[in-house]
Write a structure and sequence with these properties.
The protein contains 15 helices and 38 strands. The chain has 741 residues and is an alpha+beta fold. The N terminus is likely disordered.
């Protein structure tokens, strides 16, 4: 039995011992265990410097330190200091620092890890206003203690410093919102369809079949490998696609690295009832995502398309959809790893040097940020991502939609795509409560209907201008209440005839003339003229080119072939040689050269409905001016094209006219008869004030002047066609080409 005189002393010792571990009765405080000591490995930052980690032999920036701040290093390592960064070793460039006297530091007990969810400022104290360091998003740092005032005390580079709680998350406390209030809006408006859609006219479910194939390491990309599943049983080849032609590898890799096919698993997940199979879908999806991550780190991807601007955005959207679908099946570590991956993606999409300004790729980047910020709405820091994305979207639509309502990436198909996106974003932002910007988007959407109406040919298709493919089609579900669009898209079966047959879009630099809105396409004439060069995206060397339809396509262009610019055939499709334009000294214009103000519509006259006129100018060739005036005399049923070409120096000039497939030109002096199946379908007459020579080429019979047409709806995409070549030598010349309809 303890004697009373010793009892009080024993109690005091026990209370003192317990006091080392408890503060305010309940909370464990590692801070009280910190031991102060002097460290002679101190340095001062004399110019802003990066904090880097070594990964795969490369130094990767993970943060930065400010001039004047002081830290401690672990080891002097040649030109570098090794420093403590979370559980890793970081590196600081020594020449950005100078040694200082001993710095007092603490020997901390680490209580856990934080994940930075955004770029995170680091402060000397909770009362500091200027950060002394900054840590990139998706980085791990160590906790010393948590303050009740919205701060964490952390250990970084040998110092006890502070970060705000809103910028980080405790890894052990990462939780998912069970019933996400925004998920229905996100899925309805922003998450795309599965890669393999279920077809209504079949008894099988194509999406479920595709998902089950993935379980067997086979992935079906409908547009590639003749639609046959690709075998990934030996691992996914992230560098190239099996059975994919070289010119289509880039487009395929965009889908592959965008993880588009993961959507087959998530869509099938909600269709089936078998819980066992659902579990397999999620496990396989996670396996694929981890494989992608392991093989494609940002600093060393297997292929550049892994971190392509659009692929990255599309992948983030897929990852969020997968995360939502699998959140009750993934374990805690898998969910945290997925979250970290998504945080890195989202942070990357906010960076100015990664953002694709004023392009549809940038639009998809903003879309992904909206999805991310609204899905993880419980993180206040992500609200800034949402504001950034909406602001950039608004700026994009303002800059890439012309004053006359045309999307300025040169392609009718992209005009439709962007119009659909504007409509979708407007509806989505309305549901998120952003009424003002939603109304602005709705207004833009309706302003785009005029061009969408008039650009449709009498056969219901688009001219294959720029990157509009034969498989791209006008969609009747757009502008359902616009009677003129509905008439054009249905070939007169619905709606009402538009009032005008002639339209010029001077800001967009297009002109479209037709004889009437006759519902009989065989009796219809249509002319499309372009003088447009607005941006690098989807631009072809088609300056002052024409597309002519008269009962059928007559004067056409090659059309697009692929997006692989290194492919010789694709290079041709983009070139001047594939369009109805000017060639100087056997050379065409580069696809892009920044001279966006050197091609334009100079004048037009629509006062006489029966005789519209438009004049375009092209000054992109050095020292050469090409003026093209197009007049459509509807009463006389003829289209006249007047080309004036001038230069201070003597050149060889050629004008090209591409003839539609299956039509043969028969040359008789300055007259050309166009025949199809031995029947005359049009006469072309030429006149000139120069010594003009006329010839024709077919397919690849000429070394320089190829003549092809591309139709991606056919098994043989490339076909040989005729091209008329009008040639003269000199400093100037006038050529008149009359198409007798």
């Amino acid at each position: 039995m303890i004697k009373p005189k010793y009892l009080f002393g024993l109690i005091a010792i026990i209370l003192l011992f317990l006091g080392m571990f408890f503060v305010k009765g309940d909370y464990f405080s590692e801070k009280e265990e910190s031991v102060m000591f002097e460290n002679d490995n101190a340095f001062k930052v004399i110019e802003p410097a990066s904090i880097s980690l070594k990964k795969d032999g490369k130094l990767i920036k993970v943060g930065a330190i400010s001039k004047g701040s002081t830290f401690n290093y672990l080891e002097d390592y040649g030109n570098w200091y090794k420093v403590r960064f979370g559980e890793s070793i970081g590196y600081i460039w020594k020449e950005a620092t100078e040694p200082i006297d001993n710095l007092t530091v603490k020997d901390n007990k680490i209580s856990g890890n934080l994940l930075t969810v955004v770029k995170t400022p680091v402060y000397n104290s909770t009362t500091s206003t200027d950060p002394i360091a900054e840590i990139n998003a998706a980085q791990h740092i160590q906790i010393v203690s948590k303050s009740e005032k919205g701060w964490y005390e952390i250990e970084l580079l040998g110092r006890n410093l502070f970060v705000k709680t809103k910028n980080v998350i405790e890894e052990n406390n990462f939780n998912v919102v069970k019933n996400n209030k925004n998920i229905s809006v996100i899925k309805k408006s922003l998450i795309g369809s599965p890669l393999n859609r279920d077809l209504e006219n079949t008894t099988e479910n194509e999406t479920i079949n595709a998902a089950n194939l993935i379980l067997k390491d086979k992935v079906k990309f409908p547009k590639y490998n003749q639609g046959e599943p690709m075998d990934f049983s030996k691992g996914i080849n992230w560098k190239e696609g099996q059975g994919v032609s070289q010119e289509h590898q880039r487009s395929y890799l965009r889908q592959l690295h965008g993880l588009f096919f993961i959507s087959d698993l998530t869509s099938a997940f909600y269709t089936i009832q078998d819980e066992n199979l659902k579990e397999k879908y999620i496990n396989k999806g996670m396996e694929i995502i981890q494989d992608w991550e392991n093989n494609n780190p940002y600093h060393a991807p297997q292929h550049k398309m892994a971190w392509h601007d659009e692929s990255t955005a599309r992948r983030l959207s897929q990852l969020i959809d997968f995360f939502e679908t699998g959140k009750h099946h993934l374990n805690k570590q898998e969910k945290l790893q997925l979250f970290k991956t998504m945080v890195f993606h989202a942070d990357l999409l906010t960076k100015e040097d990664f953002y694709s300004y004023n392009t549809n790729h940038g639009m998809f980047q903003d879309e992904a940020l909206i999805i991310f910020s609204k899905y993880f709405y419980n993180f206040k820091a992500f609200s800034e991502y949402y504001k950034l994305a909406v602001n950039r979207l608004d700026n994009y639509f303002d800059s890439l939609i012309s004053d006359d309502g045309v999307h300025l990436e040169h392609s009718p198909s992209y005009h439709q795509t962007i119009a659909a996106s504007i409509k979708s974003y407007g509806n989505t932002l309305e549901e998120f409560g952003d009424h003002e910007i939603a109304n602005s988007f709705e207004k833009k959407y309706h302003e785009m209907v005029s061009y969408a109406t008039h650009v449709i040919k009498p056969d219901g298709n688009w001219p294959l201008i720029a990157d509009t493919y034969a498989s791209d089609q006008p969609i009747s579900s757009f502008w359902p209440n616009n009677k003129y669009y509905q008439y054009a898209v249905s070939n007169g079966k619905r709606g009402e005839k538009p009032k005008s047959t002639n339209m010029v879009f001077p800001d967009a630099k297009y002109a479209i003339f037709r004889n009437s809105w006759n519902s009989d396409e065989k009796e219809s004439t249509y002319l499309f003229f372009t003088a447009a060069y607005h941006t690098n995206y989807h631009k072809h060397s088609d300056d002052l080119s024409i597309w002519l339809y008269n009962g059928e396509d007559i004067i056409t262009e090659a059309g697009p072939h692929s997006y692989t610019l290194s492919d010789p055939i694709t290079e041709y499709a983009y070139s001047s040689f594939a369009h109805n334009t000017l060639i100087v000294d056997d050379k065409g214009l580069p696809r892009i050269d920044g001279k966006t103000d050197r091609t334009y519509i100079e004048d037009y006259n629509l006062k006489n409905e029966e005789k519209p006129v438009v004049k375009g100018v092209n000054k992109r060739f050095d020292g050469v001016t090409h003026e093209r005036k197009v007049t459509y005399d509807k009463k006389r049923e003829e289209i006249s094209v007047n080309d004036d070409i001038s230069s201070k120096k003597r050149h060889n000039f050629k004008l090209l006219w591409h003839i539609a497939p299956n039509i043969e030109p028969i040359i008789n002096n300055n007259e050309i008869i166009l025949a199809k199946n031995d029947e005359k379908i049009m006469k072309i007459e030429l006149s000139s004030d120069v010594n003009l020579s006329l010839s024709k080429v077919f397919g690849d019979e000429d070394k320089i002047y190829k003549s092809w047409a591309f139709d991606n709806t056919k098994q043989d995409v490339k076909s040989n066609v005729y091209t008329l070549v009008l040639e003269f030598n000199g400093t100037k010349g006038n050529i008149k080409t009359k198409f007798n309809l």
